[in-house]
Specification:
Elements: H1 5-8, E1 27-32, H2 47-56, E2 73-78, H3 87-97, E3 102-106, H4 117-127, E4 133-137, H5 148-154, E5 158-170, H6 174-177, H7 180-185, E6 192-202, E7 212-218, E8 233-238, E9 245-249, H8 255-260, H9 262-275, E10 296-301, E11 304-309, E12 314-321, E13 326-333, E14 337-340, E15 348-354, E16 359-365
Parallel strand pairs: 1-2, 1-3, 3-4, 4-9
Antiparallel strand pairs: 5-6, 5-7, 7-8, 8-9, 10-11, 11-14, 12-13, 12-15, 15-16
Helix pairs in contact: 3-4
């Protein structure tokens, strides 16, 4: 069996030089975008790019004193955020999980429909392993499928929603407030503030689900929910001592809410960092991008791929499948454009562009 970690764990040199250490170990994040068949597609076309930008450059997202891991993050994206997916998308996720630490479920309504029964079990098995993390928001609890284990794992199922400015309160349960996980997830977030979003109500009380601990609630006295819950959790987490971690927030209906709401951005950043299991260090520092870093871009046209590099040099441009097998490779000195044809349609590949000192990587999907 080919070890695909050899190429999928390479740090993204085109975005940040986050560490000078030879044995860099960035937190590997995978953004999973598709909604299942028949699922509502939220207006989130810019959600994944915004989260990626925030992780790769927290200062640009105006985060106030965030804890930053010394070796930073790598961020891959899988699947379309603008059209419904199929079980092929779910299987691609299962394959890619092997080389990532955290998967972010990006508003995936009808989540169940993206997985075969076998892949459903594989997803929950991966999520249960220590060192793995799942971060999910908003539509991830809006599911029209029959997967009760997923509902229990995610901590709730959507029933109704109301768009309004609402007072959000940090949970005050003493056992939660004293929990080190609660404290890490709440870092830099006000204990109460008013936030506008599309707010979910849930079929049953998330607080009653074993393993779920509440981070924040909605004050129902400050708006008129379609379905009153009384105790109305809106953000929560799952942190088994010897298992994988889950963070969920019901906010994030629209990418503009993410752009404009510091509370949501900071919760998402805290959640991804925490879900990775990384332990904060008081000496963690952010290092600016190094001058002249290699940048590459790709354009997919059917089964063809055009790769452009921002400067000429001794490049090695390589296409690999998610199974680790090399599909194509081209080397050039002085070239800035590389074209690959005859790739399989509707397939996911890893694109690697490297010089003797730098490497970049991204996941691409043909049409």
């Amino acid at each position: 069996m080919v070890d695909i970690s050899r190429f999928l764990s390479v740090s993204v040199g085109s975005a940040l030089a986050l560490s000078v250490a030879a044995s860099a170990a960035p937190i590997r994040v995978l953004m999973f975008n598709p909604c299942g068949p028949g699922g509502y597609i939220h207006p989130i076309s810019q959600q994944t790019p915004l989260i990626k930008k925030m992780l790769l450059n927290p200062a640009a997202a105006n985060l106030q004193n965030p804890v930053i891991p010394p070796d930073g993050f790598t961020v891959d994206s899988l699947g379309s955020a603008t059209q419904n997916g199929t079980t092929t998308d779910g299987h691609n996720l299962i394959v890619a999980l092997a080389t990532h630490d955290v998967v972010v479920c990006v508003n995936n309504t009808a989540f169940t429909g993206l997985f075969t029964p076998t892949d459903q079990k594989a997803f929950l098995a991966w999520a249960a392993e220590k060192g793995h993390g799942v971060v999910a928001f908003h539509g991830a609890t809006d599911d029209n499928g029959n997967w009760p284990e997923k509902i229990t794992y995610f901590g709730g199922k959507f029933t109704t929603h109301t768009t309004a400015p609402v007072m959000v309160l940090a949970d005050s349960t003493p056992a939660n407030v004293a929990d080190k996980n609660f404290q890490a997830l709440s870092l830099g977030i006000p204990k109460s503030l008013t936030v506008t979003d599309e707010w979910y109500s849930y079929q049953s009380a998330p607080r009653a689900i074993p393993g779920i601990k509440v981070l924040s609630t909605l004050n129902e006295a400050t708006y008129n929910p379609d379905s009153k819950m009384g105790d109305h959790p809106i953000s929560w987490f799952r942190a088994p001592e010897n298992g994988g971690r889950l963070y969920y927030t019901g906010a994030g209906h629209d990418w503009q809410y993410f752009r404009d709401t510091y509370w949501l951005r900071r919760q998402m950043y805290n959640g991804i960092l925490w879900a990775s299991g990384w332990s904060p260090s008081s000496t963690a520092k952010f290092i600016d991008p190094k001058p002249g870093a290699l940048n590459s871009s790709s354009q997919v046209s059917g089964s063809s791929l055009l790769v452009n590099v921002d400067r000429a040099g001794a490049h090695a441009v390589e296409i690999r499948g998610l199974d680790g097998k090399r599909v194509a490779m081209e080397k050039g000195a002085g070239k800035r454009s590389y074209t690959f044809t005859n790739l399989k349609p509707n397939s996911v590949y890893a694109l690697l562009v490297s010089t003797p000192r730098e490497k970049t990587r991204q996941l691409i999907k043909t049409r």
